[in-house]
Each structure stands twice: as structure tokens, then as C-alpha cells.
Amino acid sequence: MTATQTEKQRLEVHIRGIIRRDMPEVLQTETQSFEFAWTEEDFLRCLRQRNCIGMVAEQGDKVVGFMIYELHGAKLHILNFAVHPAFRHLGVGNQIVAKLISKLSSHRRTRITLEVRETNLTAQLFFRSQEFRGVCVLRDYYDDSGEDAFLMEYSFGNTPGKDSEEIVNRIVQYEDF
Length: 177
Ligand SMILES: CC(C)(COP(=O)(O)OP(=O)(O)OC[C@H]1O[C@@H](n2cnc3c(N)ncnc32)[C@H](O)[C@@H]1OP(=O)(O)O)[C@@H](O)C(=O)NCCC(=O)NCCS
What we know:
The chain is built from 6 helices and 7 strands. By secondary structure, the chain is an alpha+beta fold. It has 2 domains: 10-106, Gcn5-related N-acetyltransferase (GNAT) (Aminopeptidase, 3-Layer(aba) Sandwich); 110-177, Gcn5-related N-acetyltransferase (GNAT) (Aminopeptidase, 3-Layer(aba) Sandwich). It binds coenzyme A.
């Protein structure tokens, strides 16, 4: 941790699995974070899937952030993730992502992926700061706005294999977004 980081204000949160009672606070964060927000039904439909997991970050009895992700054979895929606007820049997002990274292992799930909207520069910068890298552009990815997505990826141990190195070399132009 650098001197600047230690001087910065950081809010320690407790991260646990989502429960039904969390939904009002999760929805409040969701609607204050996204133009095209998920509805309660979107969350419930997703969380009913066996491979879909939700976690929340709480400070005292307040839910200040959440993440919804999918389990795949070799990777985790982030579907939805936000920190309440009043609790941003306090390291909450970092702690949620660190929790997800702690679920990776060298022999099972070795990667985390997600799509980020082209216009969501904050999320792109955030994920870069968490050592995710841009992999490729997914053209016209979103039905709602028609905008492109950047596929971003984190690799376990941060030592990309030979194949990923080749991909990184080919898509190096996307690294500057
Ligand atoms: C992206 C998001 C989850 C980050 O959460 P957060 O709790 O504010 O992030 P942290 O405080 O842990 O930030 C960690 C690092 O990310 C980077 N970062 C975070 N917000 C940033 C911003 N607005 N601009 C540039 N870098 C940023 C910084 O490097 C920061 O480290 P620092 O505070 O030491 O400078 C939050 O901004 C959010 O909820 N955004 C709206 C929803 C969203 O876009 N979700 C992602 C969908 S893909």
C-alpha cells in the first residue's frame, strides 16, 4: 500500500451473501447508478439461477454496495456491480472486487470477466486500477442504447499465459481507452 493510499479515507465494509431483505437498498443504489437500471424482477430472475451469486457490502446495518456474478467452469463473470454514490471513493468497490478475486484459484476458476459500457469511463478506470485489462470491443452490445462494450478481464496471479499474451498484443490499441 502506498503512502497516498494510507492517508486516504477508507471505509471498511463487511461483505456477505445477498438476502431478500437487502433488495430495497440494492435497488436504491442500482437506480442511482445506472441510466438503464435493473428492476427488482431482473435481480430476482438472475439470482434464481443456480450459477448466479450476489454479495453485498455493508457498513453497520447499511448496504452500501453490491455485486452480482455468474459462476462458469473456468471463470467468474460480473453481471452487475455498484457502490452507493454517497460511499464512492472510499475503497468499497476495491474491497468487493478483492473478495471476488479471492475466489479464484490456479487450478479451477482462473479469470474474471465483465462487459463495461464504452461511455462508462469511471468503471473502465476503476477496473484498470484493479488490474483488469481490456480484451476486445463488442460492437453494438447493448440492446437499450446500442453502444459498444469493452470486454475486460482479470487473470489469476496476474501472469497471463501465452495465449492471453498473444491476445493482449493483438488488442493493444484498446488498452488506451
Ligand atoms: C465503479 C465503482 C463501483 C467504483 O466504486 P468505488 O467504491 O468508488 O471505488 P474505490 O473507492 O474502491 O476505488 C478504487 C480505485 O478505482 C479508481 N477509481 C474509482 N473511481 C474512479 C473515478 N471516478 N475516476 C477514476 N478512477 C476511479 C481509483 O484508482 C481508485 O483508487 P484511489 O481511490 O486510490 O484513487 C463506482 O464508481 C460505481 O458504483 N459506479 C457506478 C456503477 C458502475 O459503473 N458499475 C460498474 C458497471 S461495469
